[in-house]
């Protein structure tokens, strides 16, 4: 049969064909709507819908896609993300975690699919940040943010707020510092606990009536006078829910522990008291949780012992000390102090591997040659006696001069450490060797100066042997020689980087002239990062690019599910070497003791819960450490207001530019409103601000000169203003086109009536 031309089709045939198409379209729409009505809280895309309703042809699938777009536009379904939809929630409910912000942008993150729903304050039921809530979700038009209303607070999260008290005759207020609460907290007179105006306090919200603007609360603790160093450091700890004092009952329990080492205990262990042993730690360290031993074997090889304080010999499971350590999970290292995981009597006394004292240890003993090849290793409990305590500076002097105590041992260990390090990099380990900011602190806590702590050979010597011990312990349990199923264990894992974050980092590095691979094998990617980090050494952008490289990586966590450690390039890795300051190390010690004795595997679920808690507490401790550094940076810069510095743009946001100073790594904000020369728009994709009129760009990584404008200790915030080549505050044009400084422009009340730059 020949082809039928358009002219040969009769009107009746055309009409019937049109009717048939319409019927098919209607039937398709009905099927899609039926599918949508059955989905409840499930999400779906056009392919999933097509498969479910039997739309198999390309034309049918295209029509399904168009129908979904049309339904989303009309508010019949919700577009969760581009091309991903959810059925309407009118009258339906979802459960999630409430996120409160002091800028009024409250939201709920749903448990089911992680969707973020905006919550107006009038619809919040005064839920607090972290509360578990039930919400009704409203349908919305495409492009609009999905909204919801809290209908029930299922579970209230226990939380406190930190702030400064203002006390009136019959009541008081807490003026909060929190980013999670916009209002002050009302405190009845009977709940003030003697607090007075100007005191820093910890307050718990007890009630928030629906029609009241302010919640009511009670004082949990008074930290002291606001502005005092001890008060502010305790406030930082309290802000992150970390303990700032040690329970006296736990300290008393620790004081009762007998430090004596019996002959019976020595008989159970390998006696290494006669082997040369020493510690290398910071000059101000008090807790020595690791030591190295060294001797030459008859075959010419070296015996290297990595000896770790045997904390679990003294701290028994589920005792009062263990429960407190488990809760804390880690020691917290702040600018001017350490908040220990264990009572001082244990961490600085009984367990600390102090010189000329017999100590119990859990050890990994290696037989190695001068090329750092490992021939044998043994994990065992030992008794040791340290001959010498070195500071890093003292050990570094021995390495550099070839003179001093234990010189042969230190030089041999240094040589092996360098070879271990080289081999590790060749296998794909990343060289994250970033300078740390340190402060010279006066006795009253005032920062007198800022300096950089640089990791030298002595630091790296200790680091390499600790890494080797951790890797050996993890491999022993995770990869049994008898090829049996591995027993449950605590691993330190590090996932592969997010592809997009890595690509973004590679693009930024490229803008500086450095090549970083964003695809390929982990070894190839990490080698390219190491090459970049080596090339950038000593240059202005070094710290910035090193920080970005770290940020592009995933966070390392504790887990029973071993996926290896990407950053180190290890298939098996754990934390075994710091039980004085990390609870996972204590867990590892106990598991090792059990498995070395032939014990059965422990229950994974309980172990995983402990891993998760330890990871969360580690993150909180890191946040508190950064907050304490930020506080001291702002405090230090208070005496440098009006002074000029060079820096690098370390962050670009819709509210302004973050600049990190080259001299001291202090970071401050140049607010968008202070960029006086133009109206700037934020280009998120390219990490820059672009001027509308002059097309001037401020890009991530650009060098700029600034003056210190403000130092707000309450907010831990520095504000900078740009300066020009003559060291004057950069001028631009005001809203009438006249030359003006940032200060002059800000003082112009009329600018608010004009079209303002995007924020």
Write the layout of secondary structure elements.
Elements: H1 11-37, E1 43-44, H2 46-53, H3 58-73, E2 78-81, E3 84-86, E4 93-99, E5 106-110, E6 116-119, E7 132-137, E8 148-155, E9 160-167, E10 171-176, E11 185-188, E12 199-207, E13 216-225, H4 229-239, H5 248-255, H6 263-267, E14 270-271, E15 277-281, E16 290-296, E17 302-309, H7 311-314, H8 320-328, E18 332-333, E19 338-339, H9 344-350, E20 358-368, E21 374-385, E22 388-391, H10 392-401, H11 407-426, E23 436-441, E24 447-453, H12 457-478, E25 491-493, H13 499-511, H14 522-535, H15 542-551, E26 557-559, H16 583-596, H17 604-637, E27 644-653, E28 656-661, E29 667-671, E30 680-683, E31 688-691, E32 697-699, E33 703-712, E34 717-722, E35 731-733, E36 739-741, H18 742-747
Parallel strand pairs: 14-21, 15-22
Antiparallel strand pairs: 1-3, 2-3, 4-5, 4-7, 5-6, 7-8, 9-10, 9-12, 10-11, 12-13, 15-16, 16-17, 17-20, 18-19, 20-21, 23-24, 25-26, 27-28, 27-33, 28-29, 30-31, 31-32, 33-34, 35-36
Features:
759 residues, disordered C terminus, 7-stranded mixed beta sheet, OB fold (Dihydrolipoamide Acetyltransferase, E2P), disordered N terminus, 5-stranded antiparallel beta sheet, alpha+beta
Describe the structure.
This protein is α+β, with helices and mostly antiparallel strands and 759 residues long. 31% of the residues lie in helices and 27% in strands. A seven-stranded mixed β-sheet has the order 14-21-20-17-16-15-22. A five-stranded antiparallel β-sheet has the order 6-5-4-7-8, with no helix packed on it. A hairpin with a 6-residue loop joins β4 (93-99) and β5 (106-110). α4 runs antiparallel to α17 (604-637).
């Amino acid at each position: 049969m020949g082809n039928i031309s358009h002219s040969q089709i009769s009107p009746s045939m055309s009409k019937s064909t049109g009717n048939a198409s319409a019927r098919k379209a209607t039937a398709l729409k009905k099927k899609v709507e039926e599918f949508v009505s059955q989905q409840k809280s499930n999400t779906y895309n056009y392919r999933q819908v097509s498969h479910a309703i039997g739309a198999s042809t390309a034309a049918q699938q295209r029509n399904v896609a168009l129908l979904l777009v049309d339904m989303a536009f009309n508010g019949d379904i919700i577009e969760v993300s581009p091309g991903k939809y959810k059925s309407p929630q009118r009258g339906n409910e979802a459960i999630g975690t409430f996120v409160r912000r002091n800028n009024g942008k409250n939201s709920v993150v749903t448990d089911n699919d992680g969707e973020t729903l905006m919550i107006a304050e009038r619809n919040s039921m005064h839920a607090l940040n972290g509360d578990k809530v039930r919400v009704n979700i409203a349908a919305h038009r495409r492009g609009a943010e999905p909204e919801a209303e809290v209908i029930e607070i299922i579970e209230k999260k226990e939380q406190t707020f930190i702030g400064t008290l203002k006390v009136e005759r019959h009541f008081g207020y807490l003026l909060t510092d929190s980013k999670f609460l916009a209002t002050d907290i009302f405190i009845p007179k009977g709940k003030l606990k003697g607090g007075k105006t100007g005191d820093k306090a910890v307050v718990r919200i007890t009630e928030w009536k629906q029609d009241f603007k302010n919640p009511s609360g009670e004082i949990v603790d008074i930290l002291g006078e606001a502005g005092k160093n001890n008060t502010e450091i305790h406030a930082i700890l309290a802000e992150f829910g970390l303990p700032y004092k040690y329970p006296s009952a736990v300290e008393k329990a620790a004081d009762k522990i007998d430090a004596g080492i019996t002959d019976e205990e020595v008989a159970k262990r390998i006696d290494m008291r006669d082997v040369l042993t020493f510690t290398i730690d910071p000059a101000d360290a008090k807790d020595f949780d690791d030591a190295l031993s060294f001797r030459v074997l008859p075959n010419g090889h070296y015996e290297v012992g990595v000896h770790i304080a045997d904390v679990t010999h003294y701290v028994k499971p589920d005792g009062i000390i263990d429960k407190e350590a488990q809760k804390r999970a880690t020691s917290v290292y702040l600018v001017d102090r350490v908040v220990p995981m264990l009572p001082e009597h244990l961490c600085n006394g009984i367990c600390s591997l102090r010189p000329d004292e017999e100590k119990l240890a859990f050890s990994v003993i290696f037989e190695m040659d001068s090329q750092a090849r490992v021939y044998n290793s043994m994990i065992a409990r030992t008794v040791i006696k340290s001959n010498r305590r070195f500071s890093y500076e003292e050990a570094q002097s021995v390495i550099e001069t070839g003179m001093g105590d234990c010189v042969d041992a230190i030089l041999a260990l240094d040589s092996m450490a360098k070879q271990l390090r080289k081999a590790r990099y060749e296998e794909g380990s990343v060289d994250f060797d970033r300078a740390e900011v340190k402060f010279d602190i006066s006795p009253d806590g005032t920062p007198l100066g800022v300096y950089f702590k640089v990791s030298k050979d002595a630091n790296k010597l200790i680091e390499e042997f600790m890494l080797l011990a951790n890797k050996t312990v993890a491999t022993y349990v995770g990869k049994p020689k008898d090829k049996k199923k591995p027993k449950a264990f605590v691993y330190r894992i590090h996932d592969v980087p997010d592809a997009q974050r890595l690509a973004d980092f590679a693009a930024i590095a490229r803008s500086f002239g450095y090549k970083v691979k964003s695809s390929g094998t982990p070894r190839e990617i990490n080698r390219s990062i190491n090459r970049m980090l080596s090339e950038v050494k000593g240059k202005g952008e070094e710290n910035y690019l090193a920080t970005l490289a770290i940020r592009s990586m995933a966070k390392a966590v504790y887990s029973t599910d071993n996926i290896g450690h990407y950053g180190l390039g290890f298939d098996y890795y754990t934390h075994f070497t710091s039980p004085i300051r990390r609870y996972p190390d204590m867990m590892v010690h106990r598991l090792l003791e059990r498995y070395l004795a032939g014990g059965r595997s422990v229950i994974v679920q309980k172990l995983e819960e402990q891993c998760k808690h330890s990871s969360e507490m580690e993150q909180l401790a890191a946040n508190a450490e950064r907050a304490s550094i930020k506080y001291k940076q702002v405090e230090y810069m208070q005496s440098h207001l009006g002074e000029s510095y060079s820096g690098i743009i370390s962050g670009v946001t819709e509210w302004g530019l973050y600049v990190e100073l080259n001299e001291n790594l202090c970071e401050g904000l140049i607010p968008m409103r202070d960029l006086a020369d133009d109206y700037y728009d934020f280009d998120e994709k390219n990490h820059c601000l672009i001027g509308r009129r002059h097309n001037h760009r401020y890009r991530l990584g650009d060098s700029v000169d600034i003056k210190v404008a403000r130092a707000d200790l309450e907010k831990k915030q520095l504000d900078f203003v740009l300066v020009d080549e003559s060291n004057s505050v950069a001028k631009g044009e005001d809203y009438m086109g006249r030359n003006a400084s940032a200060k002059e422009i800000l003082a112009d009340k009329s600018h608010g009536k004009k079209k303002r730059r995007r924020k």
